[in-house]
Amino acid sequence: MSKYDLEIIGSGPCGYVAGIRTAQLGAKACIIEKDKLGGTCLNYGCIPTKALIFSAGLFDISKSLDNFGILVDNVRPDFEKMQKRKKEVVDRLRSGIEFLLRQRKVEVRFGNAELIEKNSVKVGKDIIEAKYCLIAAGSMPAEIKSLPFDKRNILSSTELLELDKVPKSLIIIGGGVIGCEFASLFNLLGSKVTIVEMMNQLLPTEDTEIARVLEVSFRKRGIEIFLGRTATKTELASEKTLICVGRSPATSALGLEKLGIKLNKGFIAVDEDYRTNLDGIFAAGDVIGRNLLAHVASKEGIAVAENLFGKGFKVNYNAIPNCIYTKPEIASIGLTQKKAEASSISVEIRKFRFQSLGKSHILGETEGFIKLVVEKSSDKVLGCQIIGPHATDIIGEMCLGIEIGITSERMASVIHAHPTFSEIIGEVAEMVHGKGIHTI
Hints:
By secondary structure, the protein is α/β, with parallel strands linked by helices. The chain has helices at 15-24, 39-44, 46-62, 79-103, 157-160, 177-188, 208-220, 256-259, 294-309, 337-342, 358-363, 391-403, 408-413, 423-431; strands at residues 4-9, 29-33, 107-110, 113-117, 120-123, 126-135, 139-141, 154-155, 169-173, 192-197, 224-227, 240-243, 247-249, 263-264, 267-268, 281-283, 322-324, 330-334, 347-353, 369-375, 381-387. Helix 1 (15-24) runs parallel beside helix 9 (294-309). It starts with a strand and ends in a 9-residue tail after the last helix.
């Protein structure tokens, strides 16, 4: 008889959340982790990156404090202390996950996992068996064959986060989310940053106008950008080079091929309920390659647990927020104008600029705008794109609106506190039917 109801390979946002929800539903879970609790997001991705970005942002603000009537002399960044604070944040959050798992009596085994037969996982010399298995092993930085990582000069995001000093120059191969976030971070800290992107715009999956605004902002700040180009080794004349051209599933050592688990371009193939082709084995999070985002992985982990032991749950892939922590910040959800038109959906597009908000002038952050995509026939809000201050926080209200199928008229009726950045949502919604107060 199996000791566990669910064995989970990986303790990232998908794995540990699935373990906790399994326990909440009265079933017994075991998590197998080869490295550190929290996976890539907590230890080598989302959290450490944003901790450093926040420190760099404070330094950037400090350079204009005199505009606010505050006189400060000789302000300078201390990268070593920034790294120390980053580590403290990560360690504190990892301890929090450990506490939650312990309180829920979710067992954790450390070691390399290998699926040796259906729902039997080898960890070191031990064999762990369960009724069901969830593969949530996450992903790792993708490599370019002609520019392999050497962990000294040609780096992945993992090594870049561990630098002990700010490089004087940094070439970034890949102008997607990760590349743009690191470009913004190290530019603020004084690096000479160059981005090389093979597509014809930064952030190829984002709204074209939003990407163009970011490009202009980056160029004004001295970031050199080459679009529609690929880089060769002879061009890498910089102190450090970051390769960020996507991520690959971390599945090579799990024994998937031996068991006959089907793959799709390296990612694990699953149905709408995250079942693999082998009965009782599930996969979710980055390993299935749908949306490589921590918050999506968490919901997929919850869905697996709920579908096995609860009342069932479906992830709404039409209401997934994308957040980019550049300066200025970017956030989006739902359809862009281009995607709507490609699907033959007739839409109204309205924009409202941050420079028309009182809060923007109070904080001295007036760059950017919000864009609303509304279906003409139903008035339903189908998408939203934001570039500007606190965009990643503002998008939360839009997530709720799109999830419940809100109309622009209903959104315009919501009372937003003044002065706040969230007022921008009400302002742009008013514009859809020609009722904008602070626009001509």
